[in-house]
Amino acid sequence: MSKKKIVPIGPYHPLQEEPEFFKLIVEGEKVNELEIEIGYNHRGIEKLSETKHWDQVTFLVERICGICSTSHPFAYVLAVEDLLGITPPPRANYIRMIIDELQRLHSHLLWLGLVGHFIGYNTVWMWAWKAREPILDIFELVSGNRNNYAMMKIGGVRRDIKDDDLLALKKVIKQLYGELKLFQKAIEDDPVIHKRTKDVGILSKEEAISFGAVGPTARASGVDIDVRRDDVYANYDKVNWSVVTLTDGDIYAKVIVRILEMFESCSIIEQCMERLPKGEIALEIIEIPQGEGIGRVEAPRGECFHYVRSDGTNRPVRHKIRAPSYVNVPTNLVSVPGYTISDAAIILAAVDPCYCCTERSVAFSKEGRKILRGEELIKLCQQKTFKLKESYDNR
Amino acid sequence: MIKEEVKKRLTGKFKDWLIKSPKRVYFVIDKKDLKEVATILYKDMGLRLSTVTGLENEKNFELIYHFGYDKSGELFNLRVFIEDKINPEIDSLTDIFKASNWVEREINEMLGINFIGHPNLNHLLLEDSWPKGEFPLRKDFPLKQSYPLEEDREGE
User: Measuring CA to CA, which residue among A168, A85, A186, A64 is closest to residue A128?
Assistant: First the structure.
């Protein structure tokens, strides 16, 4: 084990597929307190970024997250473009939007599937991931990769979308509408899902504002924020769409917000394809002058924030990254206590942090230390649904 | 419009007001005014603390508090300089909003800045056994520096 080393420094990045440690302090079934421990996946990207060339950083930050892998490079190139004071060509902007919205669709579908799995609806899981598959195929068609698309570049995009690919994309979006309607109806009509998710894990508007929560987590609690509308980037002001806001703040609201958002994303992609102009896809950037810039992007989980400072050399002096889960995960501190252990797994997942988090949870009882592993927690959560289902069937 | 309002409310507390682009405003405030300014921005004007960037300059430390106004999307960047390089200290904002809790812990372990009044300044991202007085985001910290974990040290 002597090979183990501490990774010295960098930004912490708390998105999906990443270990976080939750300590649930329970009394019987009820969770009284929650402690969050993070830092298991700290890779020192902020420090590393100071040693890379401006162009290399785009690829570096793409590796921060495998799910919203275009949000970080997008926010980074916007920050550098803010520093330079340039706007990329219109075609590049529309391509960026198409990629960004496709990514939102695939991320929300992935999350929807996981939530289905956590509450014991494995059919939802399979169907959601089946609907997600064609989107990944489109990514492969356009960029050559199912994930980490490497489409962003300072001053534009790296690859063009071919007309043939657009036809395939059109087909996928059309099909997706039907599938999304199916999910929406399935969730709105199911009494068991209502029972499991309604009035569970409530995050009040005041708490959401105090924690500075962003994205669907905040919008489900009635906080009307969306970077795409507020701090317009690319061409989001040139297409028609609306921000979905609900007021309940429970898990049900978080599910519905994301489903309705997917309809908006489909509509944005369709409008982008209609308006996609011909022309250049990137500007040529020769050097980055002294200065500083900030880029903000609405990632699937909320505002993704990048700050860069240049001293005129070919590397950033400072590159600050704030991923959306960094402010969303702490909201669990108020939304989990008061509910049962079997609800905890689904509340923790409702923020859309990561799959691994539940695998790191430990439940403590007053009689002594009792360790519940992630799988057991999911099992508990699923059993509760089955019991509910039975009681409905016996009526 | 919010720009004018912020400017009016903070009269006498800021200098070097700079509107870099329509949605990006930078200005410098004094360290001792930070808490008062943050209270005005958050409680009275409804701004949200997006995050805080910490930097080490040659002669001082610099913290940039990024406050976003989400109704129209402006970003107000408050620059605070800490001149004392040996014992850098600044007021914590945790009793105003919870958003600053984690980010202050992070800056504390990465740059070694003490936040006065923070309830828990334990390590957030670094391992507990990380040596005291080593701050990885400082400029003199080498990129490839590493330390063994505590359990490994015991085994030696």
Answer: A186
